[in-house]
Every structure is written in structure tokens, then in C-alpha cells.
Amino acid sequence: xxxxxxxxxxxxxxxxxxxxxxxxxxxxxxxxxxxxxxxxxxxxxxxxxxxxxxxxxxxxxxxxxxxxxxxxxxxxxxxxxxxxxxxxxxxxxxxxxxxxxxxxxxxxxxxxxxxxxxxxxxxxxxxxxxxxxxxxxxxxxxxxxxxxxxxxxxxxxxxxxxxxxxxxxxxxxxxxxxxxxxxxxxxxxxxxxxxxxxxxxxxxxxxxxxxxxxxxxxxxxxxxxxxxxxxxxxxxxxxxxxxxxxxxxxxxxxxxxxxxxxxxxxxxxxxxxxxxxxxxxxxxxxxxxxxxxxxxxxxxxxxxxxxxxxxxxxxxxxxxxxxxxxxxxxxxxxxxxxxxxxxxxxxxxxxxxxxxxxxxxxxxxxxxxxxxxxxxxxxxxxx
Length: 383
Hints:
By secondary structure, this protein is mainly alpha-helical.
């Protein structure tokens, strides 16, 4: 069976040439670009410009259509395509270049604000998924906090433009995280609809140190409530944070070794990066369940989890805690159950002031495990 001839891929937004089924005199349908969007990701069907017997004739038709030189019956003038190859393809190429100029001139440029409005409408107004008021308010707040970009042409923005907004924003670390999250979501939307060349938000980061070091640990009574609802995916992860002590950002890239039962990773400081914390036996099954279910320990962004956490705590009748409060809870549990102070610092990633511990204070995994296992978990919650 002869191989089907391959043709060059048409430019995005250029239209399509489709080989139709059955025996036809003109088996190639030539279609203009997709028309009006009638649903997210779904466009209204378009009528064929014409039907031709050869693919290259279809390309010539599309090119002429873009250039504004197509007229009904134009395809009939291409019957001598093979005998006049040089002249015909010269004409096609000229039309193609003209079409490119026409498309470029008629292409609408969108401002940052216009892309935001389109993104917001698709995510929050046209989606079947429902979002909390807090989530929607956070998105709107993030947009307001990058007003320097509102009137800028979106396709003309580069990494430095985005990073400058984050670097010069005087708000707290959590507000800056919302801005970065908004950038990521807007570029994902723009890429989907081919409204930008690349994702310039990919490397934007919050360089300002975290300012939420102060926090309120979960009380014993609150932890007891969480353990009773440990099968809830959100509560499950809250408990993991409370008994391991990492910052929530670290869980995005942290290594989870289920065989040797430890976490390795960390963010923010040189002392905290790449540190090892044994997986407490009480949360091992929770960690294993998340890895088996999601293939990673944190299945959403820290920003998304924060909102889910607030909703879950409110539902359980527990006062609002931030993800960072779970880190304070781990520290408080270490103190309560007499975990060695230096090992508590090691597992939290705190810096040592004395040279002896800073340079020579190495501890094995098993030594750290012996310390973390001092932390008790109610006996009816270990299964």
C-alpha cells in the first residue's frame, strides 16, 4: 500500500485542508480559520471555501483567500498546476507573503487588562466548576496590584516587565504570591488561544523574604479534630505539614522517599535547603496515599491549597490557620515531646549560631528518626 504523501503543516490560524472520505472527484475540502467560539475550546463549524482534487491547489486557494485575491471559481484556474509549476508556485508564494502582511495588520493586539478580562470570564463565569468568593476576590486583588501593566500590550511583555512588578510591590509575601499565580494563569490562557509567543511568567518569582514567620500553632484539641477527619484530602495534607515542618512552597519540589521513609528538600535559606526530615510513622500512610494518588505530595499550587485549607478549617469549626502555622505546630510538638533542640533546628532548617553545631553537627537519618518519633499521636489515629 503506497504511503500517504505528507504536506507541510499550515500556520496556526491559517485554515485547514481536509482529505474527505469516499471516492470524490474533489476529495480535499478547503476551510477558512475557525470562527466564533461557542463554548470553551469549541468553535462554530465553518463552511468550506471550495473543494479541490489536489492538496497544493487547496493551499493556493487558502493563500489567495487570506490575501483577498480569491473569488468563486478561482480553483478552476489552477488546473494546469503541474504544467506551469514555476509560475504557479511563484504566484502562490507572492500571495502567501501578502497574506502574512494582511494577517499581521488585521491581527488585534490585546492589552494586559483585556487578556485578564477574557481569562477571568472563562475561569470564573463560563466554567462549570464553582469557586469561592475568597478565591475570586484574591484574583481581582492580584490584578489591581499590577496596575503598571494594565494598559501594556500583552504580547509585548517580557520577563523583566513581570518581575519588576513583583519586585517593586510593597505588599506582603502572600500578596506577591497571588500576583505570580495570576501571571501563570493568564499566560496559560494566552498560550491556549495563541495570544502570546511564550510563557514569560515561567521564571518570575517572589524574591522578598517570607514575612509570615510569626504564627499560631494548632492546639491539641484542633489536632484531635484534624485526625478524626484525616481521610479528607485537605486535612490529610495539613496533618503531613504539622508533623514534618516544611514550608508549603517546599512541598512542590520535595523528594519523598517511601522506601527509606524520609523527605528531602527545602526552600528559602541555605541551611533549610536540601535538608532531610524523617517521615513520622503516624503520617507515613497519609504520605504514601498522596504519592500513590497524585504522584506527588502537593497536587495543587500553594495558593490554591491555602484557599482550600481556609474552607476546610471553617467547615470543621476550627479557627483560621495559615499553612505556615503547620510549621509552627511541628516546632511546638518538638518542644512538647522533648525532641533534642539541635535536631529540632536541623529538621526546621534553622541556622546554628555556634561553630560546633554549624560545622560538625551531623546527624544520621536514624538518629533524627529516633527524635521525631518522640512526638506522640493519639493511638486511635495511627491506623
